[in-house]
Design goal:
Length: 127
C-alpha cells in the first residue's frame, strides 16, 4: 500500500528555517498533486502548498507565500517544503498528502481532494 512519510520537523526560533521532506513508497504509486497541510492545536487543518507531480506547477497559501517553497526532485523523488523566516504562527503539525486523480494544482487546496496522507511532523517556532 502507498505510504507517505514526513521528516524534517523540529524546534526553531522565529526567523529561522526548516526543510520538510515527504517520501512516498509502495507498489507502482503515481500521483497527480502533492500537497502540504498543517494543523495547529484547536484549529482546523489548513492548506499550505501544493505541487504537480511533474513539478511544473505550484500553489501557495497567502500566509506562506514568499517564505515557503515547495519543490520536487524527480519523477518519484521526495517533495520538499523549504520554510524560511518562520513565525510563531507557523507552529503546527505538518502533513504531506497526495491525490490519486487529476486535480489542477490551483484547486488542490482542500483536504478532501487528497487520497493519501502522512502521519505528520511537528514544527514548533519559538518567539
Amino acid at each position: 500500500q502507498v505510504q507517505l512519510v514526513e521528516s524534517g520537523g523540529g524546534l526553531v526560533q522565529a526567523g529561522g528555517s526548516l526543510r520538510l521532506s515527504c517520501a512516498a513508497s509502495g507498489p507502482s504509486f503515481s500521483f497527480y498533486v502533492m500537497g502540504w497541510f498543517r494543523q495547529a492545536p484547536g484549529k482546523e487543518r489548513e492548506f499550505v502548498s501544493a505541487i504537480s507531480w511533474s513539478g511544473s506547477g505550484t500553489h501557495y497559501a497567502d500566509s506562506v507565500k514568499g517564505r515557503f517553497t515547495i519543490s520536487k526532485d524527480n519523477a518519484k523523488g521526495p517533495v520538499y517544503l523549504q520554510m524560511n523566516n518562520l513565525k510563531a504562527e507557523d507552529t503546527a503539525v505538518y502533513y504531506c498528502a497526495a491525490t490519486a486523480g487529476p486535480v489542477p494544482v490551483v484547486d488542490a487546496t482542500t483536504s478532501t481532494k487528497y487520497n493519501y496522507w502522512g502521519q505528520g511532523t511537528q514544527v514548533t517556532v519559538s518567539s
